[in-house]
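Question thread 4412

I'm putting together a teaching handout and wanted feedback from people who do this every day. The idea is simple: show students a protein as raw sequence, then show them the structure tokens that encode its fold, then repeat with a second protein so they can compare. Below is the first pair exactly as I plan to print it.
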Amino acid sequence: MRPCLFALWLSASLFGQIPAKGASVDGFVTPVRDLRSSRDFYVDVLDFVVAGSKDVMSCDLVLGEERITLTRIPESPNARTSPPTSLEPGFQHLALVVSDLAAAVARVRRYGITEISASPQVLPNWNPRARRIGAFYFRDPDGNPLELIAFPPGVGDPRWADQKRGLFLGIDHSAVVVEDTEASLRFWRDRCGLKVVGQSLNSGAEQERLGGNPGAIVLITLLRGPEGPGIELLDYLTPTTSVLTSHAPRGNSWSRIAELRVPTTARPSSTEEWTSPDHHRVSVVQKAFRHE
């Protein structure tokens, strides 16, 4: 396993290679301490729209075509007080697509967020899968890591090129730290039904500055369904797994649940919850695709 901060580049260049069949990611669950203040942050700062409140413990928000559910963490004397760090299994971040990276960074900075990146970064031309993609990492009020990503013309989902849709456009993917790529593929690909659409080995000064992880080398594997956001597996070759495994947050409330839609030909008998080898929880439900 290893830290986790440079997933975005791969998904951008490979977005067009979407499988024709299979399961799709329908949304993500984001744990929060104060539901109202967290909702206000996502709405007022990041342009999410409230789609409904399930109860006093959760609230659905949408950005573009993507959905997240803010869920309040129950108070417990043994509860972990912060999300997993980028050096731990269980770490996850959401990549928010923006039309203007400088303007988006300026907005979140005005709110006084905690920055992960010292400054916005643009990936170099030597990386053919990532060239000219801009990104910036920061944390929401609860410490959940978020990524702002800006695609250059001709890269990424064509809908990200529609600048008239606003500053914040949608969620391209969620990146998750894994300890072993092959073991994680047996879960996300073989069990969940997502399809591998690309793989890349990333390193370099820009990525180090983005995440504050000197010497980071990360194997990135992107999976997608026929629609919806992708899942990126971040398998860090440095730092080594021996540095990280002792911190594994097993079974804690900060391991977000991804909701997975499955087609009728592969649906479970009822809604089920599965757990990946890296402690990410997935709620599997039968649900019609938006474009069926």
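The second pair follows. I'd like the answer to focus on this one:
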Amino acid sequence: MQGPSVRINAEVSTDNALVVTCFPSVGMVSSVVAHFLIEHLQLEFIGGVVDPRLPALTLVQEGVPLPPIRAYAGKPQCTIDGCDQVILLMSELVVPEALAHDIVWAMFEWSKEQKIVAGVVIDAFAKSGMKANLNGAEPVVEYEDTEGIDIVGIGANDKSRKMLEDMNIPLLQQGVIKGINASILGEARRRGLDLMSIMVEADPRFPDARAAATLIENLNNLLPSIDLPHEPLIQEAEFLEAQLQSMMEGAQIDSSESGTANSMLYG
């Protein structure tokens, strides 16, 4: 059986790109962030990740069919040395654990061929004392719980950890990351790549716009072209929440048909 592959429009140049990944997270933070970036960085759909073992489904938004794991690209201002553009990889699908390593390997092999310069994993963790909503795939972290929305970072190498410190994002001291984000971080560490994960505290009971806004504000350090006033950003994130919730309600997957309990849409 053919394995996973990243299929990008042949006309698109991907050299010197910062790759941002947005896979399912607590409070749908990654999805809210992804849709915000697509709109405000004017990213264009360029392809996605294909694997015959993924559920055969298509999300539809405003009449447009969308594959489960898709890619967008654009050329916003980027502060990382050598970065000329941004590529966003996103999904509302909880990638089955059995496929995560294969898909991540394909993504990293593609990134090596395409001369990707750095990566950022968007993630979230449940507020202290709350149960998350990813059927066992949610991260478990130990952090200092403050009155505000807390944020932590993970760096795959010394350079990325230094970048997080320069962004005033405290490094996660103790925790367990699961699912495809764990595979991304582990493989990046093995390869010694400039990749970081930015994780925000979120309410798992509903799409958390304020958590997403906090994370986007921290991304301003890497992508200053998305620098927006705080309140309008929250208002727009809340509007995106409603769109995402509507899309998710119309896409229910029977996991028993796929044979994989984690093959589902979240939200």
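Top answer:
Good format. For the second protein you could add a caption like this: The chain has seven helices and 14 strands. The chain has one domain: 14-223+242-248.
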